[in-house]
Structures are given as C-alpha cells and as structure tokens.
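Protein data sheet
==================
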Amino acid sequence: MQVKKIGDVTVTRIQEYSGPTHPPAFLLPDLDQVDLEENEKLMAPHHWVPHMNKLVVTIQLWVVHAGDNIIVVDTGVGNFKQRTDIPRMHMLNNLILEWLEAAGAPAEKVTHVALTHLHADHVGWNTRWVDNRWTPTFPNAKYYIPEADFQFCESGRNKVEGMDVFGASFDDSVMPIVQEGLAVMMRPGMEIADCLQVIDAAGHSPGQVAFRVRSQGEEAVFSGDIFHSPIQIVRPEINSGYCLYPDMARNTRYEFLKQTAKSGALMLPVHFGDPYFGFIRAEGNGFRFEPACWDA
C-alpha cells in the first residue's frame, strides 16, 4: 500500500498481484524483441525480466479520498472467481478487503466505484460470494459503468468479435450490480463525486474511459489500459493483444501522451511494475516515462 497526495485528494494504491507473467509476443504482439533490448534501461528489471523474457504485469486498485467521498477506481480480479482459462486469475484468495480497510476504505463506507472498462481484471471486486450468490462488495456505493462496454456485452457482441476479454466477469461481477440497482451508466463528459472527470479513452474496449482529478493546482489521470507497459510510451504505435479496435487504441494513446505531457499530470495506470506510476515527458519528437515517487 502506497499513498500520494494530489492537492487535497489522497490516492492510495492497493496491489492484488504483480509479477513476470507475460511473454512480450503475447501481450504486445506488435513489439519487436529488438525494441525491448534497445530500451532495457527503461524496462528492466521492474517492467521486464530479460533472462525470462517476461513482462511484469501488475493488477492494482486505486482508492481516492476526496472530501467525504471514498472512491475505488477499478476493482481487479476478485476472490473466488472462476477463471479457468487464465490460471493466474483463477480462484484467488487475497486480502484486498483488509487492505482497503487499512487504507481507510472499508467496503461499507465506499461511496463510488469508477470502472475504466469492463475487462475481467478491472471488475472482479465489484462482487463477492456471500450466501451462495454474487453480492455487491460495496453495498452503499454507486458503480459507474462505461455504457458502451455494457451495451457491447449485454448484446452478446463480446462473444462474436475476436477475443472475449470480458468473459464470465460480465455475469459474476457486472450484472449483479445492475440487478441490485447500484449501476450508473457512464459516458465521457460526466463527473463522478465532484472530482473525477470522465475522459474518452475508447479503443482497447468500446467504452474505455480515463478519469482526471484536479486539486490545488495538481492533476492526475487514472489511465486504465491505454498502456500496459512503459514501452508503449516510447513506442505508442504498439497495441496490446487485447485491444479490440487497434487504430482507435493507437489514436487514444497518442492523444493521451500529448495531453498528459503538456499538462504535467501524474499518470496512474493499472498494469505497470514498480513504482507503478509516473509522468509522461515530451522528448524530441516522442515521449519518455519518468517514474514518480510515493509520499513518505
């Protein structure tokens, strides 16, 4: 658990897991091995383990304390979820609820849940298994769900268009929220809890969004899966293998890089390795990643 102040807003990182899990050719199929080797200083050892040739991938939740609001941004994989096709995500039994309480965000006091998109590794802690059914983990919160992602899955298009990276999570981690009346369908341009501005980030999924927070002249952006790895900052044309609409995903990434480098906002991704967040800086005709530091 680490903490960073953005003006008067407190952001806390809660880790579900992190490790060298993905061959580069699988996660970033457009990436040439030479590009990794040429960027070893950027990537190793926190984002790529050269002797294993595995990318380090993290799953983390962000907790935002803003005034009286307690917001969870993306909710990871979740406990006891049947994910037989992805063994590292199958039937986890982690201490996320205990860490949330340690961060001052016990489940019953969370006021908002903000989801960048509905892939399985971003929605899992929406629900937990209680009394033989999936029930909302945060019973007093409103869950902000990207409307385009929801419509895509509700119509069944996730089952017929390429790789289904929504999978069973739509049934066990999204629909129970809707059925309990806790869901708010979200579109770019909205604002959550008077502090999170919803930004269009589509491409990785039909309705992916990012969230911008500003306070006391400081700014941060929760970037979802615009990036899976820092190598995509120096090589923004490289998509992950999970990007549903490749051209749109590249355009989103380029625009995000330009805007974030210009604003100086802190980037808060989901999947980077240590230190798990940082700044985007313009460099020549491109960009570079500058790791940030946690508050003491």
Q: What stands out?
A: The two ends are 12 Å apart (CA to CA). The CA atoms of residues 27 and 241 lie 5 Å apart. The longest helix spans residues 246-263. The chain has a mean pLDDT of 95.
